[in-house]
Amino acid sequence: MFELDVRSRKPIYEQLIDKVKEMVQHGILQADEQLPSVRTLSSQLTVNPNTIQKAYRELEREGYIYSLQGKGSFVSPLQQGQNESQKAELRNELLRLMAEAVYLGFTALEIGALYRQVEEQRERGNNSD
Amino acid sequence: MIEMRGVTKLFQGEKAVDSISLTVHKGTIYGLLGSNGAGKTTLLKTLAGIYSPETGTVKVEGEPVFENPGMKQRIMFMPDSPYFFPQSSISQMAAFYRSIYPQWSQSRFKELGAVFPLDTKRKLSRFSKGMQRQASFWLALCCMPDVLIMDEPIDGLDPVMRRQIKNLLFQEVAERQLTVIISSHNLREIEDLCDHVGIMHAGKMLIEKDLDDLKADTHKVQVAFRDERHEAAISAKLQVLHQERRGSVNLYIVKGESERIAKVFEVYEPYVFDLLPLTLEEIFIYEMGDAGYDAQPIIL
């Protein structure tokens, strides 16, 4: 379920943390769903079990997952705080893209149109569910 | 836990290992790196209780290792070139190890037969280098040691076998908290395998750290400033290990957290700003450079 880029400069445990966060935020991992055990994930990915343990510990510290003694790790229900930090991250990303768009001559109107386009797509998606 | 305190080992008056202290916690995979002749093998052999150090102590779980058969039954040392008795086959070597290591597991020996495609009746001397290496892994894993010390074990193994062996080691670490100490020059392999690393040069330990912390602590920055004067300000604010100029782009190796570094640079609104974590190979080369050992720009 996880794919890691072993050639990336980004440390494996950071990649793992980001993957799990992403999957939680996109709803691929549901609240209270069990994560694969350290042992299973270690042999699936051929990654040092200590590295996985460390990533799980960090995710637990940040409140994304919780662990039950002897049972394993589970996904925490999504909290407000996580949403905020995600928003802050996205804001920076948007600013960078916006700067590029402005440089290329996009107008506020055109950017607004893009926003509406995404909104419409999302509504259509919700209706078809 | 393995503890080494102030260990010095002399060979004909020459310090091969010079007052090294090191701690390896249970269940870690520790990678020992170093320049040629840094004393890695000497250090490993001292850890395994093969050499007696001139000064200092080596203890595994609080007990000394040297000439302590009880402790040695729980330690496996794999030398850099596999050694087998002359004319012996895998099953003969297995019988020998079974008589030495009380934790030897015969069921595991059978299980691993599926992993290693080797004829147990054939003479080991007729095997290729890589196959001999496989055989020593097979035998070592069946001894069920608590500490596995390996000197350059990856050489000669094909990529499939490397992955296989990595997986087996990880299982042992996850299931029974096996402690692994491994030396290698293949930094890519070490990077994937280990969680702690120690870097040696000329008998001394330069750094010893959690691998992820080590990587999170040093960064490579590529930057093109709007104004050359900004350059001077950077070295005052950050701990710069290395600096290089390539055309209008400056390359920095900076110690510290990525967020703090980014903040310092972004104040100057540079044209180009790239912050990358270092690879283990880069960390190795810059640390060696710091210790006065680097590649000389000689053109022949």
Automatic annotation (TrEMBL), chain A:
PANTHER family registered for this protein in UniProt: HTH-TYPE TRANSCRIPTIONAL REPRESSOR YTRA
HTH gntR-type domain span: 10-78
Keyword Transcription: yes
Keywords, in A-Z order: DNA-binding, Transcription, Transcription regulation
Name this protein carries in UniProt: GntR family transcriptional regulator
InterPro entries: Tscrpt_reg_HTH_GntR, WH-like_DNA-bd_sf, WH_DNA-bd_sf
GO molecular function, one term: DNA binding
SMART domains given in the database record: HTH_GNTR (SM00345)
Pfam families cross-referenced by the UniProt entry: GntR (PF00392)
Automatic annotation (TrEMBL), chain B:
Keywords, comma-separated and alphabetical: ATP-binding, Nucleotide-binding, Transport
Highest taxon above the source species: Bacteria
InterPro entries documented for this protein: AAA+_ATPase, ABC_transporter-like_ATP-bd, ABC_Transporter_VariousFunc, P-loop_NTPase
Sample GO molecular function, one term: ATP hydrolysis activity
Residues spanning the signal sequence: none
Domain ABC transporter: 2-227
Transmembrane segments: none
Pfam families attached to this UniProt entry: ABC_tran
Gene3D superfamilies in UniProt: P-loop containing nucleotide triphosphate hydrolases
CDD domains: ABC_DR_subfamily_A
SMART domains: AAA
Name recorded for this polypeptide: ATP-binding cassette domain-containing protein
Species the sequence originates in: Paenibacillus monticola
